[in-house]
Input
Amino acid sequence: MAEGIEVDLQAATKRYGAKVALDEVDLHVLPGTLCVLLGPSGSGKTTLLRCLAGIERLSSGQLRLGGRLVADGASHEPPERRDLSMVFQDYALWPHLSAARNVAFALGRRRLARGDAAARAQQMLERVGLGHLAERYPNELSGGEQQRVALARALVAETGLLLFDEPLSNLDADLRERMRLEIATLTRASGATSVYITHDQAEAFALADTVGVLRDGRLVQLGPPEEIYLRPATPFVARFTGLAGEVPVRVAGTAGDDDLVPVDLVPVEPLAGGSTLLATAMSAPEPGTATLLVRPAGVQLLAAGHAERHLDGVVVDAAYRGRGYDHAVCIGSASLVGIHDQRRWARGDRVGVRLNPSSCLLFPPETPAAEPVLAPARA
Ligand code: ADP
Ligand code: MG
Output
């Protein structure tokens, strides 16, 4: 079993010429936990992972692994001295080695007797369900099987840190879910600390102990998945982690201790049934117009005219999802999508819409400067 090491990155910056790929990133990962870094393409995820691995040098800042300084703007320890293993999107197996020898290769520096290394490789291949394919070459294995070999290779050396760069992106949807589960259980059982990057929010939430959200090279939020979902730091984080839609509103009161604040729709219309719409203020709300960012989980469809509805809407789409249906509903000028219900509402149905306050995130009106970031802005 591996002993997970602590990852401590401080003010990490990486420049490629004039391009700032990482901008003063502070990231702390506790030993034995799994941190997922989530962000759109180009946000700096791979750069950050390669800096942790030692494949890239930091331009400035410090990286400590297990309390030991391994990189700063001046010094740089190479990857092989950092006690880590990596899993890549494209598997990166040696084409001329069998699955067993690919895995055993990771034990090369351990100075084990050859038979010992082979036995451990075989054991690890069995744990990822590939014991019977150990003698196959990568070109004789499916994508999912190749990624299992890569996972076995990363786990067999029992390093303190595992790094994953979008390992599921090349796999089919059904395989992705099974492989995600295997990564979640095997990495946790290994005791290692893991840093895992993805652009897929569902994957991030399903896997992570903590989620870090990257945007333009900056870490805009770091916290448990529940916190990212319920208290996103910025509208960007909220949008990137799944919204039903956005509704323009006007703040109609002050927030209580529970951060709930009454809002009116804009243009101002009396709410259906004379009800009051409550939103959760993400920061101290100012009077005036604002945007309500609505999470799909808190939207409920009711019969037209139902006393508990907040809004009246019309169903514009119903998509079968196996466990029920996802609906799209038009409410005035806005629309809400991804609204789950066990029953199928028909296109064109008039419905009542009820919004749970915890799923209505109230942000102040957006200006480019209004997006708070953890790193200080620089000229
Ligand atoms: P992600 O993995 O989130 O898609 P990357 O870390 O690959 O993002 O890239 C972040 C930014 O840095 C991008 O704008 C990318 O074009 C740039 N970048 C990455 N590697 C290099 C490089 N070797 N030279 C120049 N720019 C690079
Ligand atoms: Mg990448």
